[in-house]
Model the fold of this input.
Amino acid sequence: MILPTDLSLGTNLALFALIALVIAVVGTRLTAIADDLADRTGLGEAVIGAVLLGAATSLPGIVVSVTAGWHGEAGLAMSNALGGIGVQTLFLAVADTVYRRANLEHAAASTANLAQSALLICLLAVLLVAPHSPDWTLFGIHPATIILFGGYIFGLRVVNDAERMRMWTPRHTDETRADEPDAEASQRPLGTLWARFVLYAGLLGVSGFTLTNVATRLGTQTGLGETAVGIVLTSVVTSLPELVTSIAAVRRGALQLAVGGIIGGNAFDCLFAGAADVSYRPGSIYHAVGSDTLLWVALSVLMTGVLLLGLIRREKSGVGNIGFESAAIAALYALGVTLSLWHV
Done:
């Protein structure tokens, strides 16, 4: 949807809130469908969450990054993608507070989620190295983009093998929630589930395209600039599906789906940078971004590392009935926002 260019600040803010509401409502509907697909396909909650739900809920963000890259707005394209990883990791800490029986990372034990976290760290490391590599492109595409997509595809295979072969298995406790198929899900037509999933995913994509115009204008009207808007505003709104789906999954008892959806969405978000590089025609987008964006890549590595430690440690409960990783992730995200706004 192409919006008029002469809208006031108040109108743009109202549109921003409306699009946020649409994304939140549509994202909520995806949770039940993804849970049923996990049962019907036999792939399990962790894999479906990492691949299907993670990719679908990331559609608004990838539309924003690709469109911003096409318009030459490298700062917005990259900060939206990488800011989304930070806020989505924070959302997992929020979901941890919703699940009161135990620490979410303890209850949602899954080999696939461990492997997916390791894959995410590798993809983020590529994004850290890319700006320091030679500024070479082929048809306007930097080699790091090819490595990102190739590494993601290979990593998904490793994640699937880790879950299927079970060379490592988590220890089950009284608080561990196993991924058990829902008997009612087997009665629902598979074709209907896929059709509804595609429909909702499409609505998220349209919302993300519209959000691009609004976010760009807010950056100009508020004086925050592309990077701050991408980190503080756009990335939060385009990440709302991850928040609502993770909380909805926790309430359904689909804990592995909740954790897998966040981690998988973060790994998919790394591809935003590659997609933005393809659409960014002046050259390598990795060499067109500033230090603020690289700060969020480093923080995302740190936050994911803390999350991986929490998934391995599996603390049953901590202060406020959440694990140490949730408290540390919240503190790291607050630090990142503070540092981003400090340089505005």
Remarks:
- The CA atoms of residues 209 and 332 lie 29 Å apart.
- The chain has 13 helices and no strands.
